[in-house]
Amino acid sequence: MEPVILTGTTAFSSFRVNALRAAMRAAAPAAGIASFDAHWLYFIETDGGLDEATMDKARALLGAHHVFPGGDGFIVTPRKGTISPWSSKATDIFHNCGLDAVKRVERGIYFEVRSASGALLSPAALQPALAAMHDRMTEGVYTEVSDLFAHRPPAPMREVDVLHGGRE
Questions:
Q1: Confidence of residue 166 (pLDDT cuts 50, 70, 90)
Q2: Cα separation of 5 and 17, whole Å?
């Protein structure tokens, strides 16, 4: 089932926006970055959707405004298949508040980056600037997040005999 996605507040202060925009421009001068918008997105995994009362409580807990309408930008979230420390704590808070219909909550940032002409820039056009926008070790840049909560089976275990079969 696809997650419920709620839109939150602006992700960065004006000071951080200015610093990030400068870092992005320095990393990708050819992209012609003029401006960007960044808002928090909250992803909620449920078994069968949320009733209106639960949705109202979730909005209040997260400081979220409305269901994310979608867009042509991109989203930075923790890598798919991982659970962030923020998610663990937020999910515990939801359960402690009696919102047991919520299986997991995750947070990400929705970006729309524009050139001087007002054209929306894709992650491919921003490739050198992406390093300033996310942590490659723990986060990913996505245009599709319907599989954010996909449960994949673990890979088969492998054994390596390092004492007898390792390299010389």
A1: low
A2: 23
The region that residue 81 occupies, defined by phi over 0 for left and psi between -120 and 50 for alpha, beta otherwise, is left
Q: What number of H helices and E strands is found in the chain?
A: 4, 7
Q: What is the pLDDT of residues 70-128, one digit of tens each?
A: 888 999 999 998 999 999 999 999 999 999 999 999 999 999 999 999 999 999 899 99
Q: Check if the beta carbon of residue 86 is closer than 8 Å to that of residue 109.
A: no
- The two structure tokens encoding residue 17: 């926006």
Distance CA 76, CA 49 (A): 24
- Considering only CA atoms, which of 98, 142, 153, 121 is closest in space to residue 3? 142
pTM for this prediction: 0.87
- Looking at residue 167, what is its pLDDT? 67
Assess contact for 24 and 113: CB atoms under 8 A: yes
Q: Tell me which residue of 41, 43, 39, 35 sits closest to 126, measured CA to CA.
A: 35
Average pLDDT of the residues in 46-53:
88
DSSP 93: H
